[in-house]
Amino acid sequence: MVKSPLNYTGGKFRLLPQILPLFPQGIGTFVDLFCGGGDVGANVEAHTVIFNDINRSVISLLRMFATTDSLQLTREIERITRHYGLSDTFSEGYEAYGADSARGLADVNRAAFMALRADLNTMRRGTPRYRKMLYTAIVFAFNNQIRFNAAGDYNLPVGKRDFNANMRTKLDEFIRRLAVIDHRFSTRNFETFDFGMLGADDFVYADPPYLITCASYNENGGWTPAKETALYNVLDRLDADGIRFALSNVLENKGRRHEMLADWLADRQQYNVHHLNFAYSNSNYHTKGREEVCDEVLITNY
Ligand SMILES: C[S@@+](CC[C@H](N)C(=O)[O-])C[C@H]1O[C@@H](n2cnc3c(N)ncnc32)[C@H](O)[C@@H]1O
Questions:
Q1: Residue 4 contacts by C-beta under 8 Å, 6 or more apart in sequence?
Q2: Which of 118, 146, 174 is the last residue of a domain?
């Protein structure tokens, strides 16, 4: 399995060994309706994958991975790294910067990272140059995450790592995977996505922002009970049209129950709830108390 070079909050990579076997065989078109970093769509067996997300910056990065040669993109990132005087432990080692892996590189890179981020946020968005700068910023940012403020500015602080061997491998493997998948990108709000083109062999996977957790894409009113209801309606309509779907969510998180989801399911005996083993996705699970329990589920209509 390949891991997305975008470290997405709520990314499903660690749950893939449990989720993928629950998907049907012989999928024609696979719709990754809330694709985020693309970990699911990139690893599913299907004839065609549609990566959809309302976040245009995310889709434009995925598009860049799909259309740029891996070595060429690596060289571009190295060029930007040199231009801003950011660290390059891949070539120079940690010693060259008076740093070590445990302490990381935040102190070394802070000023240069802030300069890169400031330039990035003055650039016209969506251009090839912007995308390369944005991805370089992500490489050097806190936990390699992608987050924008309400004005659309990239606003993460500097991280501990740089463009190291691990990041290079992830980028290369993901680009190679996209090259062999028949895929399309789309930036539709899920409510206006054209499901009319789907048939009985096709499959919709929905991994929306979770109502009862608060990831960064939930900020700025991103996900609401009204959207949650709209999604249930979309899924019910797919079911009525004979199209298979799977929905990721949590029924309980840190002592809080997802009442809306439980109520929706109570009236729909035809849907199946698969409880995933969260311990596999979270190594600290056993040390945590009840208030930390997360009942991660996959809901299917088949
Ligand atoms: C939980 S994340 C998906 C993570 C993804 N499955 C992965 O493995 O990386 C939810 C995604 O839904 C997107 N999203 C939020 N509201 C949306 C909407 N109305 N329509 C489509 N996508 C939306 C967010 O931009 C975010 O990327």
A1: 11, 13, 36, 37, 38, 39, 42, 170, 174
A2: 174
